[in-house]
Fold Nucleoside deaminase.
Amino acid sequence: MSLPEEARLNETDGIYLRRAIALADKARERGNRPFGALIVGAGGKVLAEATNANGESGDCTAHAELSAIRLASPLFTREELSAATLYSSSEPCVMCAGAIFWSAIGRVIYGIDAERLRVFRGERLDQKDAELSCRDVFNTSSHAIECIGPALIEEASTSHQGAWKV
Ligand SMILES: [Zn+2]
């Protein structure tokens, strides 16, 4: 299991990561998988935020991180996004890690890691993820992508308790 990385968070990172976790709870209340994400610019401005919308939309790609990137990408320059941080309630999947790469976002902070999340996801095939770490994707990037996580694991875990057994 990966060790918690709270020590690497700056003073505002915790606030935004908790916002991502709150968005995950909001997603769950609406009948979606419990995931949330937001993108925060260098000056602390929230550029975009999104919840998972799998349940509401029927779109299997409606992950929170990908949706937040789709909102921010047309509105902000590559330079602005490279200076931004994406906060996600959980470790980005391989699809979202790819979208983070294409967006040029330079920093990623997540709550619960994929390994711990698998305990909640259970054994159903349609709930299993591809076992490739977001860092595996980021490490192949031609530009640097700083990645911090897992962090606030206990808080990020509460969104998933009892959410995957249906
Ligand atoms: Zn994803």
